[in-house]
Each structure stands twice: as C-alpha cells, then as structure tokens.
Design brief:
Length: 160
C-alpha cells in the first residue's frame, strides 16, 4: 500500500501541474497505529522514502512521536504544522490520530501553495474538500474518483 500511495500522490501532483522535484510534501502522522507513538512497521516510512527518492521535499508532523524517534527512522520532522504547510504542495494524512480529526483543515489548506490532500484515513469528507477548494485523493471509498471528475469538468485544476 505505501508504494500505491506514493504513486497516487505522484499522479495527483502531475495532474496539478506540479513537478515532483519542486514539490513540498507534508506527512501528517508517522506512527503505525492511531494514537500510539510506535514507528516500527509504519507504512509512512516507505511513502516518505519513495517520494524523497523521486526528488520531493518531504517533511513529517507527528505530535505523538519524539523528534529523536522520527529522526531515527529517517523522517524530517517539523515542530509546527502551520509552518510546515506554508507553501506546501501536498498533505498526506497517514495516521488517524484523534487530534487530527479536530484540526481546522479549512484554515490549514489556506497556507498551502497547491491544495492537494491525500487522506489515507478518511478524516476529510469529500463535501468539505469541495467547500475548501481542495483536490482530495484517498483510499478505498471511491469518493476521490468522483470528485476528480467533478473538478476536471469545472476546470478546477487549471485554477491553481
């Protein structure tokens, strides 16, 4: 699945006319399991490595894992999500922490250069992303395919 997520992020960035080598990507949550600061076997490790190896500038925000632990596993941790999202091209939600369901995403996406969210946890509703003018990709529920068709019809991608 990590390889699939990285591949889909690459495709979405291309759709948004963003070069991977010039993209800033933020991973939200690094832990293997929600609300547990355990990094071993976390799929986000492979997502981060894959995107970094392809030239993207990838940073990680995780309020539960220590900076030392994140560095040990090869992440580039940031202390502030707001600072990290400034001029970011993609936000990848990889862990469904309770605290992440309470974030003010509408405000946060306003900081981004390219409003692309890849939600692996189902925290963002398609209706919210439309209201926020966000290009939403995700796993499983098919909403992203439907939304992509709607946005392409509205020339949404060309308005970034």
């Amino acid at each position: 699945m990590p390889t699939h997520v990285a591949s889909e992020v690459k495709k979405a960035l291309k759709t948004m006319h963003r070069s991977l080598s010039e993209s800033k990507i933020i991973i939200l949550g690094a832990a293997f399991k929600s609300n547990v600061p355990e990094l071993r076997y976390s799929p986000s490790i492979q997502i981060q490595k894959n995107l970094s190896a392809s030239g993207a500038d990838v940073f990680t925000y995780d309020p539960l894992c220590s900076r030392k632990s994140l560095l040990t596993y090869g992440y580039r941790p940031v202390d502030s999500l707001e600072t990290a999202l400034k001029d970011a091209d993609c936000l990848i939600i990889t862990t469904g922490y309770d605290v992440f369901s309470k974030l003010e995403y509408k405000k946060l996406v306003g900081l981004m250069r390219t409003r692309l969210i890849f939600d692996c946890c189902g925290l963002i509703r398609a209706s919210d992303s439309k209201e926020w003018s966000v290009f939403l990709e995700g796993l499983g529920n098919g909403a992203s395919r439907l939304q992509k068709q709607i946005y392409q019809k509205q020339n949404f991608v060309n308005n970034f």
